[in-house]
Design a protein that fits this description.
The structure holds two protein chains of two kinds.
Chain A: E1 4-7, E2 10-14, E3 19-25, E4 30-38, E5 45-51, E6 56-59, E7 62-67, E8 72-77, E9 86-94, E10 100-102, E11 106-111
Parallel strand pairs in A: 2-11
Antiparallel strand pairs in A: 1-3, 3-8, 4-5, 4-9, 6-7, 7-8, 9-10, 9-11
Chain B: E1 5-7, E2 10-13, E3 19-24, E4 31-37, E5 43-50, E6 65-69, E7 75-79, E8 88-95, E9 104-106, E10 110-114
Parallel strand pairs in B: 2-10
Antiparallel strand pairs in B: 1-3, 3-7, 4-5, 4-8, 6-7, 8-9, 8-10
Chain lengths: 112, 115
């Protein structure tokens, strides 16, 4: 069964600190992986998209990494801000298909 | 429009009633998806439309769920004889096409509460 597992399930950090969220997947064949940010009461918004050949990609304070051999991805948030408080969801697209497999997300809370 | 629009944003309905949820995708987006997100759980695929092809209905949880889309425009998700376990946020997403090269834009969802 194709699965996407994320850790930690929840995380609380102080404003200004860095954090790293993890995503492990068993989806096959792999096409691409996206990290989404979902604010409470809103739909998910794409942060980064990575294909098989990409190892790292940055979007402002967000940096995603991908190791296609170990089927692991991480999302690193630098100098966190209160507005970073949200759910971060790892999503994998199966190659040749059209289904997205979603992780259950990491709930991040940034506090003063 | 500029984004994916869903309506209503909130819906409270009595158990056993039928509900209809609407999704207006981004103009020109041929692919449209419906997902369900129960409290504390991940996004669950329901149904996928791609242009005029037959929809992928493999994620619909029961025959009480159905969805329609006319061409590449508005889609409606209908839940008949609602049950309390249908309470969830129903999210719609659209994409330029079904390839891996384009991102998916999500609407803000419809929060359905069955009482």
């Amino acid at each position: 069964k194709n699965q996407v597992e994320q850790s930690p399930q929840s995380l609380i950090i102080l404003e200004g600190k860095n954090c790293t969220l993890q995503c492990n997947y068993t989806v096959s064949p792999f096409s691409n992986l996206r990290w989404y940010k979902q604010d409470t009461g809103r739909g998910p918004v794409s942060l980064t998209i990575m294909t098989f050949s990409e190892n790292t990609k940055s979007n402002g304070r967000y940096t995603a990494t991908l190791d296609a051999d170990t089927k692991q991805s991480s999302l690193h948030i630098t100098a966190s801000q209160l507005s970073d408080s949200a759910s971060y969801i790892c999503v994998v697209l199966t190659g040749g298909g059209n289904k997205l497999t979603f992780g259950t997300g990491t709930q991040l809370k940034v506090e003063l | 429009g500029a984004g994916v629009s869903q309506s209503p944003s909130n819906k409270v309905t009595e158990k056993g009633k039928d509900v209809e949820l609407r999704c207006d995708p981004i103009s020109g987006h041929t692919a449209l998806y419906w997902y369900r997100q129960r409290l504390g759980q991940g996004l669950e695929f329901l149904i996928y439309f791609q242009g005029n092809s037959a929809p992928d209905k493999s994620g619909l949880p029961s025959d009480r769920f159905s969805a329609e889309r006319t061409g590449e425009s508005v889609s409606t998700l209908t839940i008949q004889r609602t049950q309390q376990e249908d309470s969830a946020v129903y999210l719609c997403a659209s994409s330029l096409d079904s390839t891996a090269n384009y991102g998916y834009t999500f609407g803000s969802g419809t929060r359905l509460t069955v009482v």
